[in-house]
Amino acid sequence: MLQFYNSLTRKKEPFVPIEDGKVKLYTCGPTVYDTAHIGNFRTFLFEDFLKRVLLARGFDVLHVMNITDVDDKTIKKTVEEGKSLSEVTDFYTELFNKDLNTLKILPADHYPAATDHVDGMIEMIETLITKGHAYQTEDGSVFFKIESFGDYGALTNINMAEMQQSDRVDSDEYGLDNPQDFALWKSYKEEDGDVAWDSPWGKGRPGWHIECSVMSMAFLGDHFDIHCGGVDNKFPHHENEIAQSVCAVDTPFVNMWLHSEFLMVDGGKMSKSLGNFYCISDLINKGFTPEEIRYIMLSGHYRTKINFTLDKQHEAKASIQRIQSLKDRLLDITKIAADEYPDEKSNFDTALEDDLDAPNALAVFFDWVRTTNVALDKDELSEDAIAKGLNFIAYFDDIFGVLSDSVAIPQDIMDLVSERELARQNKDWAKSDELRHIIGSKGWIVKDTPDGSKLTSK
Q1: Long-range contacts, 50-53 (Cβ 8 Å, 24+)
Q2: How far is CA 334 from the centre of its chain?
Q3: Predicted structure pTM score
Q4: 311-406: CATH architecture
Q5: CATH architecture for the domain at 17-265
Q6: Could you report the per-residue pLDDT of 25-71, keeping only the tens digit for each?
Q7: CA–CA dist 278, 379 (Å, integer)
Q8: What angle do CA 192, 195, 197 make, to 5 degrees?
């Protein structure tokens, strides 16, 4: 039985979709005021992993990821740069999409932008006011009244009786010091520049929290299966989402909440001052492949902290090469994959079904890689077992996405291979061996086949 750890109940639960065979999934997307960093992509890759597992289990997944293109941060950026809101957010949205493609993250079905759903936000706020869950202040702002929702704090286990509730807070993001009435609508201030919409309460803009409630319901309905994000979204963002959504529609909002843990870098938080603040393009420029980044991010359990270091590239590269080398060995024997799998796939699936236990799944898979290589060395694998093995590797990569479709071979390596081929044609074996050694020292293994030289990376 597929089961996930539900942040709302703080326990693992069997996953049963609301509609048989279909999953409605909402994942909090980026706030497009800057380039997303690798900490953000730890969460986005976990969500991609979840989606791939659901697809592998045969579910029809309807996936929505929002784009936050109006909030405190985006407005501050427009003022700093003297640009329009759309100029700033369109630029960073394009960068985000480029990084998604680079990392082979499966595209969502919908990427709603907050600015396209302001009318829906105004409508939900009006409903909350009518039902007594929100109130207008003198300046034309509207706040959610958290004392009107008896289950407030359930997601983050806040004991409201033990905490001093303060009046209200205007900021989109705030700490867990005191539960506070939060802004649904913010009245216009001069520092907002040209960013404003007309509303029944006057000129202003939506608060951050109302955006996700409206966008998720617009595409997935009032009640859906899974909502994901990083642990930093639990409070106040997701806690507030639950409160306003349930109060607006009087139904359950989301059945399962899944949250990924923080990404550490060099044992601590990322910091530009420490020189360990990385975006995806930074890692690519340092020689990482997208597959190596995926491997590092997915090798730990999503609910545990991962410590990212540049040195982990070597481990990722070696692990990926082990898989690729076995795939190449199997393909040398047959190009046909079977419809069935080795017995080890059952244990692999069992690990993934247990709250996406990627480390255990990888352990099962690499144990199979080892035993399969031993059997190949001893010529003990049948053609049927080889075909099943190719199918297992393809299944594995559908979920982890760490094998490259094609390996880019540098031109200088190709030149050395051509030079070596010429030496072999001239029967200059000493020269041929010398060039093999040089190619090897540059990280490539050259293998002589009846069809010519074949290269694989170490």
Answers
A1: 50/25, 50/226, 50/228, 50/258, 50/302, 50/356, 51/25, 51/106, 52/106, 52/398, 52/399, 52/400, 52/401, 53/2, 53/352, 53/356, 53/399
A2: 35
A3: 0.89
A4: Up-down Bundle (1.20)
A5: 3-Layer(aba) Sandwich (3.40)
A6: 999 999 999 999 999 999 999 999 999 999 999 999 999 999 999 99
A7: 46
A8: 120
